[in-house]
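Fresh eyes needed here. Kindly weigh in on this sequence plus structure tokens:
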Amino acid sequence: MAVREQVYGFFIPSVTLIGIGASKEIPNKIRDLGGKKPLIVTDQGIVKAGILKMITDHMDKAGMQYSVYDKTIPNPTDNNVAEGVEVYKKEGCDSLITLGGGSSHDCGKGVGLVVSNGGKIHDYEGVDKSTKPLPPYVAVNTTAGTASEMTRFCIITDTSRKVKMAIVDWRVTPGIALDDPLLMVGMPPSLTAATGMDALTHAVEAYVSTIATPMTDACAEKAISLIFTFLRRATANGQDIEAREGMCFAQYLAGMAFNNASLGHVHAMAHQLGGFYDLPHGECNAILLPHVEKYNLIAKVERFGKMAEIMGENIQGMSPRAAAEKCLDAIRQLSQDVGIPSGLIELGKRYGKNVKKEDIDTMTGNAQKDACGFTNPRCPSDKDVKAIYEAAL
């Protein structure tokens, strides 16, 4: 809580629908917002999985026109946004549906920013740079991790600088967020694990943020509890619909927490790995999380101890420091159980990337400028950030 003059905001979509079969409501919700011909922003994974057709079947049945941009890539780029804007204008669209995980949502948010405000997506890097609202916008989520379907965050890779631009703008918050666990049952175990650990990172970073509030604490605590209850189950058996729905609520609550308390140096550093090597965001977060929080621990000892208890650890009779370290142990064990690589070099090899120690200086400089790091509970020096990267290798 603040010890000086401080005004806290709380940002969330006007309407959220969560539950089995919620995706049937998409055409009605677009119409409720005033849209007549949406652009559906998605990716090839969603197309190949048959999820896009599930949605367009609902649109066809409702007699609604639409166009599709399905070339979004993981770690979406400024080029993706520019292509999406071109399709939106060419096809005469008046609204947006984003369908997928964080990549599709971020790309669609970027499209919405540019079609409403003009210019290029680079103009909006930073905090609240837009001046006009997005078009009517429904975000349909297919992963239980990023919570991008309900946040004011938009992360786009600048291909010329090889840097992920952090766009934080209350106007990119979707008008309606929709989470249907039926759209998630086909997620492979590796993606289930990565997105689930992303959600955990959101909750943990929000909980120890310098601008956490009782509202964000409540969301983060429940998110952590649900993730430790359901992530292993959802990873082990993707058809476990109770676990899938549990993770829907978990990631959304984690989104409510970080959308308002912001994040920390896990995300600031993970963004550089995504921008530099095009590595998956969730797995980068999962690997960095225990290393960054080990550094942060002395700033929030009691909070780490409380998280350990929420995670199911027995901390009775322990000193505050010992209890706090049990939180880090629990994070490492969960990460191991769901199959996250042990370090960044192993992660790079999994995806055919060469993560090199000599790139750390450049990534450190960029991480120190990332807006997500501003609410980290400690203020690391360049030397500290380099040491964390090296420990995570």
Observations:
- The longest strand covers residues 38-43.
